Amino acid sequence: MSTYFAPAFFSHLLGKCLRRKHPLLEISKLGLVVLGTFAMVWWPYLHSRDAALQVLSRLAPFERGIYEDYVANFWCTSSVLIKWKRLFPTQSLRLFSMVATILACLPSMIQQILAPSSKGFLYGLLNSSLSFYLFSFQVHEKSILLPLLPATLLAMEWPRPFKLLTHYALFSMFPLVCRDNLILPYIALYALCIFLYHPPGGRWDDSKRQGSTPLSLVSVLLTLAYLGSLVLHIVYLTVRPPERYPFLFEALIMLLSFSHFVLFAFHTNTKQWMLSGHLIGSDKGKKQH
């Protein structure tokens, strides 16, 4: 799962090396450290080809197909219209997912190579892990928790979007939670999230800080999104789906969650690139002084 964050670390460290006095030397040193660490981690498995292949099969379980169950990523959501498993062999799907994941990570990586920064690195971790969740091969429902790690570090700066991300991350796992009989912990955790985002006497609502009206278009859309997910929670627990479409409610949860994740990914990539202009402006100011 640490692969989800690898592009962010690579691009940030590469950007730092390129800004040093001797960039080629710094890149060589970084490469040696990476290769040495990789060799140490894999050393116990390199004595046997079968052992190494077994580890690789666990890291990339291609034989299980490009998706399972109803995870809120691109491949599973779009399979409602495009039957990927029927139309394409596993080898082609591996290539598709690799290309899609790389393309989704590229904007964030390029930004950090050109203008590395601490805050940009956090956005890079978020965008990289979210890209892997949306487009990589054989994603598990719980993998959405990985983007929440860097998102938590950015929540103070940007409360409302990250509150919505937390909501839909939990919501996307609701069918899995029901299968594992974890509804009570799910409710308790969600109640805790609400309390943290809306503490008594707190000022978490960024719309109030910016002086916007409480009945703005964004507020209305957010309210409708919350109400829609609440209705789906109740319907999933109380209503039997049609016999012709036994997984209808899972598909609706998946579609609603995926739509938010995509919009959120566009938004956070834009926010990350906005940091570049700020950094360039500050560098010019330093040079003038």
UniProtKB/TrEMBL annotation:
Q: Where in the cell is it found?
A: Endoplasmic reticulum membrane
Matches recorded under InterPro entries: Glyco_trans_ALG6/ALG8
Q: Which UniProt keywords apply?
A: Endoplasmic reticulum, Glycosyltransferase, Membrane, Transferase, Transmembrane, Transmembrane helix
Gene Ontology CC annotations of this record: endoplasmic reticulum membrane
| Keyword set includes Cytoplasm | no
Key word Lipid biosynthesis present: no
One GO MF annotation is:
dolichyl pyrophosphate Man9GlcNAc2 alpha-1,3-glucosyltransferase activity
Q: Which residues cross the membrane?
A: 27-46, 93-114, 182-198, 218-239, 245-266
Topology versus the membrane:
Multi-pass membrane protein
Q: Which domain of life is it from?
A: Eukaryota
State the family named in the UniProt similarity comment for this chain.
Answer: Belongs to the ALG6/ALG8 glucosyltransferase family.
The molecule here is called Alpha-1,3-glucosyltransferase
